[in-house]
């Protein structure tokens, strides 16, 4: 899966689905997630709360693309 298809899959994910392309040891990504109100852990958890879920996932997808996080640096994101 390419980086672009990975970020596209992030914001198209359905409730309960997991995506496997985040690297938990990235200081830049951890900082960005903290700025967004998400706390880095072994598994990042995104709470799907309308109306914030769509914009939050789009912002995270954009940040992943900017940080060049690719599928080779994989951990899991759970959409709950």
User: How many structural domains does the protein architecture include?
Assistant: 1
Q: Mind summarizing the main beta sheet?
A: 3 strands, mixed
- Average pLDDT confidence is 51
Helix/sheet category: alpha+beta
Query: Outline, from the CA principal axes?
Result: globular
Q: How large is the share of residues in beta strands?
A: 5-15%
Q: Low-confidence parts lasting 5 or more residues at pLDDT below 50?
A: 18-24, 39-52, 69-80
End-to-end separation: 22 Å
List the strand order in the largest sheet. Answer: 1-3-2
Number of helices: 3
Radius of gyration, CA atoms, in whole angstroms: 11 Å
Organism: Saprospira grandis DSM 2844
Keywords: Iron
InterPro entries: Fe-transptr_FeoA-like, FeoA_core_dom, Transcriptional_repressor_C
GO molecular function: transition metal ion binding
If you had to describe this structure to a student in words, what would you say it looks like?
By secondary structure, this protein is of the alpha+beta class. The protein has one domain (3-79). It is 41% helix and 12% strand. It has three helices and three strands; from the N terminus they run αβαβαβ. The chain has a three-stranded mixed sheet with strand order 1-3-2, covered by helices on one side. Helix 1 runs antiparallel to helix 3. The longest helix has 14 residues, at 53-66. The chain is globular. Mean pLDDT is 51; it is low at 18-24, 39-52 and 69-80.
């Amino acid at each position: 899966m390419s980086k672009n298809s990975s970020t596209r899959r992030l914001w198209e994910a359905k409730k309960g689905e997991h995506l496997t392309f985040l690297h938990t040891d990235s200081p830049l990504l951890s900082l960005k997630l903290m700025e967004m109100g998400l706390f880095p852990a072994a598994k990042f958890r995104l709470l799907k709360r309308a109306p914030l879920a769509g914009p939050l996932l789009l912002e995270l997808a954009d940040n992943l693309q900017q940080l060049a996080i690719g599928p080779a640096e994989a951990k899991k994101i759970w959409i709950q």
